[in-house]
Amino acid sequence: MHLRLFCFERGASLIQFKQLNFRWVLAAMSAGRKKAIVIGAGIGGLAMAVRLAVKGYEVQVHEANAYTGGKLSAIDQEGYRFDAGPSLFTMPQFVEELFAMAGKPIQGYFRYKKLETLCHYFYEDGTRLQAPSSISEMAAQLAEVLGEEQEKILSFFRHNAWAYQITEPLFVRGSLHTVGSHLRWQTLRGIIASPFLNLFKTMNEVNESTFKNPKTVQLFNRYATYNGSDPYQTPGLMNVIPHLEHGIGAFFPEGGMHSISQSITQLGKDLGVQFFLNSSVGRIIVENKRANGVLIGNRRIEADLVVSNMDIMGTYRRLMPDQAAPEKLLKQDRSSSALIFYWGIKKQFPELSLHNIFFSENYKEEFKALFKDKTLYKDPTVYINISSKENPSDAPEGGENWFVMINVPPNTGQAWDQLIKEARSGIINKLSKHLGLEEESHIVCESVLDPRGIESKTSSVQGSLYGNSSNNRYAAFLRHANFSRKIKGLYFVGGSVHPGGGIPLALSSAAIADGFIPKA
Question: Sign of the CA dihedral 83, 87, 90, 91?
């Protein structure tokens, strides 16, 4: 690797020289170690940094924000603590893998417990249902409350467990973007099983043909929102998602969801990863069809490989505007976004749990508004996460911290200020009807996050939470590869690339990318 004294060649000041962190370059070269740069400290970028450090790379992570974690961040206001983004923790094995491969005991960094009750559901006609984690207990509950046949519920979960077993090594754990991936036994098995995987039916079609009560259909249709999609369009295979909760489990991390990103950040630091916050990468340097580093301002930082944890559209449009982009992928519809109210509540509600869903009366119209009309439905489904139910220190004594979210379209220039005002009023009216109290009088503090803020804080184009939507078979399973076919030394991780959005899949994206990277 050539050592170029860009600071001195351009007459940089001593401060600029220190900013370049030239000592880091000398240390890496003297040790003969290869360098890697990770752009973005979201959960995928953090996992990638750990994996690269384990492989012997000298790793720098450059994050535009003043904190690591991306969407997995936290908010504190007036004694209330909120997880700012994702609120559901599944598939903890992807986190455990990072500590195991690093040879560090996870207990010293991160702890979690399994939830016995997954969610409290509230329907518009007053029906209430508590969803236990146990599949057999869930089947009994659906039979008792919604009149379903227990054996149909059990058969539904057995089929989804089988479908996950078929697709997990092919899709979740592996790449679909190499010739070798199509020659594996798992691929052949998936092809043979494809007629039975509900690829050619929508999630709603599968659920309507399985259950007799529309409330049950609505309950399982909601899992499409876990990757920002529409149950009336996304493939029926997405019904494997409830298997992840009931068949494998849902969990609560000690200290809240934010502790996931912070524990991995600390693991990275202990492995020698260097984190540069408030460090916004302006360009990926591509020379002779190879990624040779990044530009930050007018500073050039060289590396042997570059990993982008930025939204794939932003990576091409902002960081590599002069490189050929996969236009067909980038022009797909974006996933949904979110409107979130962080409310400090000065009262406790025993009928609520950690996770709560207040359904709209007309789910189909809600998703039509969301994906076709690109606006907010007049009666949206409301999700409330209350981490103080499991971690009492997240709220003052006698209070609760409400993370109140509705699904909204990505930002395409809607009149958000007016929409937020209308949504807030509608949400309060809905919750007042269900809980019999005027929530407005119990809100002591409030913060709001809308698609504009999500985009500015996380570089998620248009504020979409999961990159492209999964509203057709192509979009659901043929996302951008975790490596570049045209640019050597360039890799991609995070929710906007294969295998998809959400914490487990973002962590898996790092594992898949890791498989293409040689040891240092």
Answer: negative
CB atoms within 10 A of CB 135: 19
Beta partners for 345? Answer: 400, 443
| C-alpha span between 480 and 500 (Å, rounded) | 9
Residues with Cβ within 8 Å of residue 260, at least 6 apart in sequence: 43, 72, 89, 95, 110, 253, 503
Whose tokens are 């042997």? That residue is: 304
Identify the sign of the CA torsion 504, 339, 253, 230. Answer: negative
In whole angstroms, what is the distance from residue 48 CA to residue 344 CA?
A: 35
**Inter-residue contact 408 to 452 (CB < 8 Å):** no
Q: What is the DSSP string of 42-88?
A: BHHHHHHHHHHHHTT-EEEEE-SSSSSBTTS-EEEETTEEEE-S---
pLDDT (0 to 100) of residue 169: 86
SS3 492: strand
* Residue 29 pLDDT exceeds 70: no
Q: What is the mean pLDDT of residues 76-90?
A: 97
Residue carrying structure tokens 């190499």: 178
Residue of 462, 453, 454, 366 lying closest to 406 (CA atoms): 366
Task: Spell out where 298-373 has E strands.
Answer: 299-302, 305-308, 337-345, 355-358
Q: What is the DSSP letter of 131?
A: E
Give dist(CA 506, CA 309) in Å, integer. 9
Question: Counting Cβ atoms within 10 Å, is residue 245 exposed (0-12), middle (13-18) or buried (19+)?
Answer: buried
Token pair 């609520």: residue: 352
Half-sphere exposure of 382 (CA within 13 A, CB side): 24
Going along 215-287, which residue ranges are E strands? 250-253, 274-276, 283-287
In whole angstroms, give the CA distance from residue 504 to residue 31.
34
pTM to 2 decimals?
Answer: 0.91
Span 426-448, average pLDDT = 90
In 3D space, the residue among 299, 384, 318, 376 whose CA is nearest the CA of residue 349 turns out to be 384
Q: Which of 230, 272, 238 minimizes the C-alpha distance to 104?
A: 272
CA 187 – CA 48 distance, rounded (Å)? 26
CA 365, CA 392: separation in Å to the nearest integer?
Answer: 37
Q: How high is the pLDDT of residue 180?
A: 66
Q: What pLDDT, on the 0 to 100 scale, is given for residue 412?
A: 97
pLDDT of residue 438: 72
Q: Using the structure block, give the residue that is written with the tokens 């000298």.
A: 58
How many Cβ atoms are within 10 Å of 460's Cβ, its own excluded? 30
pLDDT tens digits, one per residue of 185-219: 676 676 777 778 899 999 999 999 999 999 999 99
Helices (H), 308-362: 312-314, 327-330
Domains and CATH numbers, the chain: 33-73+259-332+471-514 (3.50.50.60), 136-245 (no CATH)
Cα–Cα distance measured from residue 84 to residue 465, given in angstroms and rounded to the nearest whole number:
13
